[in-house]
Prior knowledge:
single chain
Amino acid sequence: MRYLTTGEVARRCQxxxxxxxxxxxxxxxxxxxxxxxxxxxxxxxxxxLEAAFGFGAEADESPRILVVDxxxxxxxLAVDALKDLVHGVRVEGACxxxxxxxxxxxxxxxxxxxxxxxxxxxxxxxxxxVKEAPVTKATKIVAMTGFGDDQAEQLALTCxxxxxxxxxxxxxxxxxxxxxxxxxxxxxxxxxxxxSRGKRS
Length: 201
């Protein structure tokens, strides 16, 4: 379970930290104190607040992409590439399957870039869990491996992946699939986000 600071809640709801503390003191937002006397809020409690007061709809103006891979170098590379090459998106990264699942719960991505070959909790199981859960089953998933593997591709698609790519320098194929899935999703669900289609400034 992920816990958020008052600063993270303030950024998500686009209010001041003082306002978040006022919500806590007024009983509108459940929180607890750390031994250092800092407030911590459960991600599920923030989602309840967003649903009750509509903060999520106001703040969520762009598609969210999460990159999950067991190699931090690749996570950083992919996050930077997607921010640079896909206009108007928010991108975060997670290292490993377990951290990926935790981040999915708090970040609530519209699209997941998921490495299949990870130690511990691999990408196949993450994909299966995301597609089986009612709250995340609409999440688009681009599965990937570091080498060509027809069996892995077929298994990934069976687990619910929407696209499959092989990791290559430059990430051209990955960026192309991400753009295609986001464009298709915005046509099917025009109110899911208000995506800007203008050129990068």
